[in-house]
Write a sequence for this structure.
């Protein structure tokens, strides 16, 4: 069955709180693994928001978001592990020396983090754009 209006609003508030708090925690991180973890919290907020939209496009954007997050976060944690094994630290401040030691790893690391950030044309961007578009359509449908 469908959820009623009040329950939808509660889930939307929880989703936004997760996205906002996760984003603020990302800004102040110096540990790359914690940054990846808080980024996952933010993406799960997007996922919760897309699941509240019971439309077919909400379900499609949820599936795309799960796929994008699954691939991107797996690669991100793998890259952070490689960085740790090479540099014996996870601190973001020392990544410059890691990038200069291996150009290929630096490029791959950058591509994975850009994809995680939702930069076009990544699957993360497409799915997050769909979630935001569905949100605007829902607000327009409900209030206008």
């Amino acid at each position: 069955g469908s959820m009623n209006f009040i329950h939808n609003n509660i889930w939307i508030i929880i989703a936004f709180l997760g996205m906002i708090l996760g984003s603020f925690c990302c800004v102040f991180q110096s540990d790359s693994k914690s940054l990846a973890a808080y980024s996952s919290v933010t993406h799960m907020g997007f996922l919760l928001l897309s699941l509240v939209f019971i439309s077919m496009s909400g379900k499609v954007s949820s599936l795309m978001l799960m796929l994008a997050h699954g691939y991107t976060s797996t690669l991100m944690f793998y890259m952070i592990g490689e960085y740790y094994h090479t540099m014996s630290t996870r601190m973001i401040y020392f990544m410059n020396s890691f990038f200069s030691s291996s150009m290929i790893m630096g490029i791959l690391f950058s591509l994975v983090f850009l994809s995680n950030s939702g930069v076009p044309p990544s699957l993360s961007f497409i799915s997050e754009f769909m979630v935001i578009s569905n949100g605007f359509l829902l607000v327009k449908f409900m209030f206008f």
About this structure: The two ends are 25 Å apart (CA to CA). The mean pLDDT is 87. Residues 5-143 form one domain.
